[in-house]
Specification:
OB fold (Dihydrolipoamide Acetyltransferase, E2P), 5-stranded mixed barrel, 1 helix, about 10% helix, about 50% strand, globular
Length: about 130
């Protein structure tokens, strides 16, 4: 039997992207907040997201703190040992991103908006909707 590791979130970027260049590629790291609203309260979850290669280039150029984006990817868990204790960090490795608040012109955000694509897909899979 097959398995599936796919996650889709829509949320707001909580920090300007951190861009890290490796020998062969580039990675953009962002935190994305998703919020559930109940009658009298809200609950916000923070998701660590990494976007590689061409997708990192798009994020670097057009995404900034406060941007509303859709991200699709898979969950990955890193582990390491610190002071004799095993530590874990779960992140989303994204392969698809849509900029949901893109206006097509300079909308007051700190990043230039002209000629930006409104979505970027780094996968071969069709959209599920």
């Amino acid at each position: 039997m097959s398995s599936l590791n796919r996650i889709m979130i829509i949320g707001n970027v909580g920090n300007d992207p951190e861009i890290v260049k490796t020998q062969n590629s580039k990675v953009a790291k962002v935190s994305i907040a998703t919020t559930e609203k109940y009658k009298d309260e809200e609950k916000t979850e923070w998701h660590n997201v990494e976007m590689w290669g061409k997708l990192a280039d798009i994020v670097e150029q057009y995404v900034s703190k406060g941007s509303k984006i859709y991200v699709e990817g898979s969950l990955k868990t890193d582990s390491w040992e610190k002071d004799g204790e095993k530590k874990y960090k779960t992140k989303i490795t994204a392969y698809r991103m849509l900029m949901l608040d893109y206006k097509g012109n300079n909308s007051g955000q700190s990043k230039p908006q002209s000629n930006a694509p409104n979505n970027f897909d780094d996968s071969e899979e069709p959209l599920p909707f």
